[in-house]
């Protein structure tokens, strides 16, 4: 039998899953013991550092927004979302569900889903792209309803 080659972080996560599963089985008397308890995790587990995009990669990502979608509105919306993520470091889920009333005076008030914290972010660099979206108000309202399931004010 040949073993799989796993990164230490992956092996640690799989061991964690096995421990939970065998603990579940043990609690329900489906197993006599939790055998995964005694398996040692890999030593010196360090996640890989996050590498920022290069200038060339950023240029390509922004240029790709001009090829995205079927209408000029969809391309403009894609560019606004990419620029919001770039200059505010928001996650895509936070940008996709961002309501218009959360943007005031060049700031974005965001409830971060991952941490549960409320954060104020400067949005001056990207606001001009977002404000162009208001020219397409009907399409903007329809897209927000589709994304978030609610109608913006």
Structure, explained:
The protein is mainly alpha-helical and 153 residues long. The chain folds into two domains: 31 residues; 94 residues, hpI Integrase, Chain A. The protein is built from six helices and three strands, in the order ααααβββαα. The protein has a three-stranded antiparallel beta sheet with strand order 1-2-3, with no helix packed on it. α3 runs antiparallel to α5. The longest helix has 20 residues. The chain is elongated and about 60 Å long. The N and C termini lie far apart (61 Å).
What is the strand and helix layout of this fold?
Blueprint lengths: L7 H20 L27 H10 L7 H17 L3 H5 L6 E2 L2 E5 L6 E5 L1 H10 L3 H12 L5
Helix pairs in contact: 3-5
Features:
153 residues; mainly alpha; hpI Integrase, Chain A; three-stranded antiparallel β-sheet; 3 strands; disordered C terminus
Give the gist of this structure:
Helix content is 48%, strand content 8%.
Uncertain residue ranges: 143-153
Kindly identify the CATH topology of the largest domain.
Answer: hpI Integrase, Chain A
CATH superfamily of the largest domain: Intergrase catalytic core
Reported for the largest beta sheet, the result is: 3 strands, antiparallel
CA-based gyration radius: 23 Å
Order the strands across the largest sheet as they lie in space: 1-2-3
Average pLDDT figure: 77
**In total, how many domains does the architecture comprise?**
2
Helical region count?
6
Number of strands: 3
Coarse shape: elongated
In the CATH classification, which architecture of the largest domain applies?
Orthogonal Bundle
* Cα separation of the termini: 61 Å
What is the helical fraction, as a range of percent?
A: 40-55%
- SSE string, helix = H, strand = E? HHHHEEEHH
**Tell me, what is the CATH class of the largest domain?**
Mainly Alpha
Helix/strand class: mainly alpha
Strand content bin: 5-15%
């Amino acid at each position: 039998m040949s073993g799989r080659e796993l990164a230490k972080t992956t092996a640690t996560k799989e061991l964690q899953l096995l421990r939970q599963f065998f603990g579940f089985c043990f609690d329900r008397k489906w197993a006599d013991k939790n055998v995964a308890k005694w398996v040692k995790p890999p030593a010196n587990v360090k996640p890989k550092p996050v590498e920022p995009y290069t200038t060339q990669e950023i240029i390509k990502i922004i240029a790709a927004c001009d090829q995205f979608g079927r209408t000029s509105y969809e391309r403009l919306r894609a560019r606004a979302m990419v620029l919001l993520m770039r200059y505010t470091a928001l996650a895509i889920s936070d940008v996709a569900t961002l309501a218009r009333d959360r943007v005031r005076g060049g700031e974005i008030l965001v409830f971060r889903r991952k941490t549960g914290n409320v954060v104020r972010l400067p949005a001056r660099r990207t606001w001009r792209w977002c404000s162009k979206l208001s020219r397409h108000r009907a399409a903007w309202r329809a897209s927000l309803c589709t994304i978030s399931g609610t109608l913006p004010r």
